[in-house]
Amino acid sequence: MPFELSRQSKAGLVGENGSQKTTLMKIAFGTQLIDEGEV
Questions:
Q1: Phi/psi at 28 (nearest 5 deg)?
Q2: How far is CA 13 from CA 6, 22, 32, 36, in A?
Q3: What does the alpha-carbon distance between residue 8 and residue 23 come to, in Å, rounded to a whole number?
Q4: Distance between CA atoms of residues 17 and 38, nearest Å
Q5: Which of 29, 24, 35, 20 is nearest to 1 (CA)?
Q6: What are the backbone angles phi and psi of residue 15, rounded to the nearest 5°?
Q7: Mind listing the pLDDT tens digit of every residue in the chain (39 residues)?
Q8: What is the predicted pLDDT for the residue at 14?
Q9: Is 24 exposed, middle or buried (0-12, 13-18, 19+ CB in 10 A)?
Q10: Cα 34 to Cα 19: distance, rounded to the nearest angstrom
């Protein structure tokens, strides 16, 4: 699911507790490496 955001844009990531939202954002910002699979 490719997407782009400009610097002025705002977006939200919604999901249940424990659905790995924080992990996804860390991977997207490059602060966490992917152990396996692909994003």
A1: -60, -35
A2: 16, 9, 17, 22
A3: 23
A4: 22
A5: 24
A6: -175, 170
A7: 787 889 899 988 999 999 999 998 898 889 999 888 877
A8: 94
A9: middle
A10: 16
| Residue 18 confidence (pLDDT) | 93
CA 30 vs. chain centroid, Å, equals 10
Exposure string over 8-23, b if 16+ CB within 10 A, otherwise e: eeeeeeeeeeeeeeee
Determine the Cα–Cα distance for residues 36 and 14; give it in Å rounded to an integer: 23
State the residue for tokens 């699979």: 37
